[in-house]
Design a protein that fits this description.
The protein is of the alpha+beta class and 156 residues long. It is built from three helices and six strands; from the N terminus they run H-E-E-H-E-E-E-E-H. The chain has a single domain, classed as Nuclear Transport Factor 2, Chain: A. The protein is globular, with a radius of gyration of 17 Å.
């Protein structure tokens, strides 16, 4: 598969998400794909990935994805896309706050046999958690309310 075909597959995946037509994910994703979330959770298999995306859209029924940048080389495609939506339903244990979210994601896709076999997502989780209302603006990295209690984890 060419780099251009891989890039087109990522565009199609974004369109599938925007259409909420998760049954079509197998058109561009390998059955044994692995999804590495920004929070460190590893999701094994297309069925599990499809469920994660379905849960995400239940929490944010109006989520829209817009592709901001797309580059590829060999069997890899990297992109930056924007999520926008309203937190209207429970999202992985976080109660709905009806807050609007708008944040950027960097994603890396690896292709095998003309389909996505692996995806890595990276985004600013602190900003996202603030936007959904799970953390107050007062919580600062390294501050007293931060999980380290303000302790420095590594000598500076």
């Amino acid at each position: 598969m060419s780099v251009e075909q891989n890039k087109e597959a990522v565009r199609r995946l974004i369109n599938i998400f925007n259409a909420r037509d998760f049954s079509r994910m197998d058109e561009v994703c390998h059955e044994e794909m692995v999804y590495h979330t920004a929070s460190g959770i590893v999701v094994q298999g297309l069925a599990a990935y499809r469920e994660v995306m379905s849960q995400t859209h239940r929490g944010f029924p109006d989520f829209e994805y817009s592709l901001e940048d797309l580059v590829g080389e060999g069997n890899r495609v990297h992109c930056i896309y924007r999520y926008r939506g309203t937190h209207e339903g429970e999202f992985f244990g976080i109660a709905a706050h009806n807050n609007e979210v708008d944040y950027m994601v960097a994603a890396a896709f690896r292709f095998d046999d003309a389909k996505v076999i692996e995806e890595f997502d990276f985004y600013d989780g602190l900003t996202f958690m603030r936007q959904v209302g799970a953390l107050s603006e007062d919580v600062k990295p390294g501050g007293k309310d931060w999980p380290t209690g303000g302790r420095v984890l590594r000598p500076q």
